[in-house]
Specification:
alpha/beta; 8 helices; Spore Coat Polysaccharide Biosynthesis Protein SpsA, Chain A; single chain
Length: 357
């Protein structure tokens, strides 16, 4: 779970998958990246299993300018309990007028613009709670959004607790919410683990608030893929492909040439200079930096490498290596960690670069 505070809004992300990586970054960091683009000033990560590794990795790679704290949920008793733990770390805990956004840590495709739209909907409606929903062809496994006859959101029912009629509902809960801070803690205290799993469901707060007479609204996501969670390796691959498409499009719009974007793989942590050309089969990973006018590929993999401006690297592999300006490496070169190819050098085929003392 991640909580962030800034500009009058507290933001939380529940139950991150520990350190599954997409485009070179842990999944939960893609969620924090989205919050960072909204100028969030504070992020509180609620961790459970594998807490030490999550704390270390997220601390090292979090976006600059985001104030980061961690809170441990010692016993996993459901999403409601996770949020209860998380809100204790928020600043201005007694602020009755602030808002809290709750985001799952396994929704790496969520765009900052969607989060911002959810907040605007919540505030314009002066609601106690607003949830992001989606309509899908196959709602199996998701919580269903139950509405009244006049269309108001009244509650959310989980798959395991839904009756036959409720399971026919195709509007699902994405587990992304905005709550008025003053009602969230009291609402959580009224939640009981009266369900098939014996857990404290955050979803039950929606019903609690509705029954208490508060306004609950919903925003339907324009693209249900944004809110898709990652629960297995198949979903991980789908999310990875979508993120890579977005990454490639962003770089191409900035002036990078990709002859075959579908077969070009660039981690989110990679930096590319202007007028770089990437040929098919190029894989750039980690903290690789490519200088302007460089040409990489085809069939080249560079991990944590530095490539100077105007350099050419063809059909080669390198890890933690430095290639200076206007060097020409390959084909079929192998650059070991610590190796350096000097400026203007032409290595020729089957070159082996070794570490420099």
């Amino acid at each position: 779970m991640v909580l962030a505070a800034g500009e009058g809004t507290r933001m939380m992300s529940a139950r991150p998958k520990p350190l599954h990586r997409l485009c070179g970054r842990p999944m939960v960091l893609h969620v924090i990246d989205a919050l960072a683009e909204l100028h969030v000033e504070r992020v509180v990560v609620v961790v459970g299993h594998g807490a030490d590794r999550v704390v270390k990795t997220v601390s090292e790679d979090a976006p600059e300018g985001v104030h980061l704290d961690f809170v441990e949920q010692a016993t996993q008793r459901g999403t409601g309990d996770a949020v209860s733990v998380g809100i204790t770390a928020l600043p201005d805990a007694d602020d009755q007028d602030g808002d809290v956004i709750v985001l799952p840590g396994d929704t790496p495709l969520l765009r900052p613009a969607t989060i911002a739209a959810l907040v605007r909907q919540h505030r314009s409606a002066d609601a106690a709670a607003t949830l992001l929903t989606a309509r899908v062809a196959d709602p199996y496994g998701y919580g269903r959004v139950v509405r009244t006859a006049d269309g108001r959101v009244s509650r959310i029912v989980e798959e395991v607790d839904a009756d036959i009629e409720e399971r026919e509902i195709n509007e699902i809960n994405t587990s992304i919410y905005v709550f008025r801070q003053g009602v969230l803690a009291p609402g959580l205290r009224r939640v009981v683990p009266d369900n098939a799993k014996g857990e404290y469901y955050l979803t039950d707060v929606i019903g609690v608030l509705f029954d208490a007479g508060y306004s609950v609204t919903a925003l339907e996501a324009a693209d249900s893929m944004e809110a898709a969670g990652v629960n297995d390796r198949a979903q991980l691959a789908i999310a990875e492909a979508e993120l890579r498409d977005r990454t490639n499009e962003r770089w191409m719009r900035r002036g990078v040439t990709m002859l075959d974007p579908e077969h070009t793989y660039v981690d989110a942590s990679v930096q590319l200079g202007p007028d770089v050309t990437l040929f098919p089969g190029t894989i750039l990973q980690g903290r690789t930096v490519i200088g302007e006018h460089a040409e990489i590929g085809p069939n080249t993999r560079l991990i944590d490498c530095s490539v100077g401006e105007g350099a050419v690297v063809a059909s080669s592999v390198g890890r933690q290596a430095e290639i200076a300006n206007h060097a020409n490496v390959g084909p079929f070169a192998s650059l070991e960690p610590g190796s350096r190819v000097a400026e203007g050098t032409v290595t020729g085929p089957f070159y082996v670069g070794t570490a420099v003392d």
